[in-house]
Design a protein that fits this description.
- Helix content is 60%, strand content 15%.
- By secondary structure, it is an alpha/beta fold.
- It has one domain: Rossmann fold (3-Layer(aba) Sandwich), CATH 3.40.50.
Length: 125
């Protein structure tokens, strides 16, 4: 199965939480994708927490394929973002990019972020 690992799931993995152990099982059994937006969010978190982002980035590059934004996704983004905001009022811009990436790559999202709980193709930690 194609599985897009959300920022929250990567954080759980790197902090060694119980949910992180679940992420580890998925890492070894699936085709793993990561949105470039998650890498940016991780960079922010790493700076805030004093983590070495380079180590995390190197690991993610080994374990997953990194996906940016396709032109076809740009065209559809506004519609998806507006729909998502109506469905989940506090749904953020970065979350919408991650959701868009999962749809364009036909991948499920592994996440702990409750903003995704009411969407299809989500695996909640």
């Amino acid at each position: 199965m194609k599985l897009l690992i959300d920022t929250s799931a990567w954080i759980e993995y790197f902090t060694g939480s119980k949910e992180g152990e679940i992420v580890n099982k998925y890492l070894n059994e699936n085709e793993i994708l990561t949105s470039v937006v998650s890498l940016l969010e991780l960079s922010y978190k790493a700076d805030k927490e004093g983590w070495n982002i380079r180590d995390y980035l190197n690991f993610i590059k080994i374990k997953s394929q990194i996906y940016g934004i396709k032109e076809s996704s740009i065209i559809e983004f506004g519609k998806l973002y507006n729909f998502s905001r109506k469905k989940e009022g506090s749904f953020g811009f970065a979350d919408a990019i991650i959701l868009m990436t999962s749809k364009s790559e036909e991948a499920k999202i592994l996440t702990k972020d409750n903003h995704f709980k009411n969407f299809d193709n989500i695996i909640m930690l």
